[in-house]
Amino acid sequence: MRLFRFLGRLLLLLALLAGGLVFDGYRQLHEPLRVDGWQTIEIAQGETLAGVLADMQTRQWLPSARAAFYLRLYVRWRALGARIRTGEYGLDQNQTLLDALELFMSGRTIVHELRIVEGWTFAQALQAIRANDMIRQTLAADATADAIMAAIGAPGIAAEGRFFPDTYRFPKNSTDVALLRQAYAAMQKTLAAEWEQRAPDLPYASPDDALIMASIVEKETGVPAERAQIAGVFVRRLQLGMRLQTDPTIIYGLGSAFDGNLRRLDLTTDGPYNSYTRAGLPPTPIALPGRAAIHAALHPDDGKALFFVSRRDGTHQFSETLEQHDAAVRQYQLPAQPRQDARPDVNPEANSKPASPSRKKKQQGP
Question: Is residue 249 pLDDT above 50, yes or no?
Fold first, then answer.
């Protein structure tokens, strides 16, 4: 009898202990983390749950020292195994240890953002990528544009204009190459879709020509309603064999030598991007155009304007004839700022007489 009483008491004690452990474990796993505000934690490749819990204990985020023990028991009981996933996670005081475990297993890592702006050059986009601390840099600091294109799987293609301006979201330690591949693929997809729906009878031999035109439109105006009008001016000039005579192409060709002012010498010095001395489109885009500019290049306005001049308020005055354009230049440009660099209004080639479509000085980049 005494043996049975002892065993009964022992079983009762064990049951009470087990119940106490279950209750304490439940409380520990459901108690809020001791996180001050919002904090981040990184799980490295190959790191175990025990290592993550040790890190959290070191930071004093756990409800108690025994909380880690209970979580490991819970993982074994539920046969969850080592299912935590690599990445950067965000935790706050509203989460429990079970919430943290579910988060680590879900792979819902913190997402960072990088914005590539319409009208940026490739160099500016690359600079933004290299300046972002959340992106792992794998490209050499002195890597050429050609080397970068080869690294993303597009060898032999000029880098300028090939990356779609957008806001890109990525987890910490995404590589520069991965981000560039994503932006390149987005531009390829966008250009192909817009090319498929293009207007008829455009003077483009390929989608690349449309991309070049879109980059010029992007640099010429930030006014949505004007994009198709400006594209229309340039398309008609191409169709008539007139030179584009657009300042942004020259500015791009000058590169770092551009000091904010265009001079007569800049307009008359021949070069691949001088649309005053050369007919047709420049050899590459001059910026990263957005979808609206691409659409405008492929759906230009069907008016008759061949010229436009800045009104100095962000908009432009469009003209059909050289006489109208000269009057607009006198109205909007000359009274406010007499020109010191007196660019020629008339193309020296006989009879065409196209004046510069844009009479403003545009900075390269945003």
Answer: yes
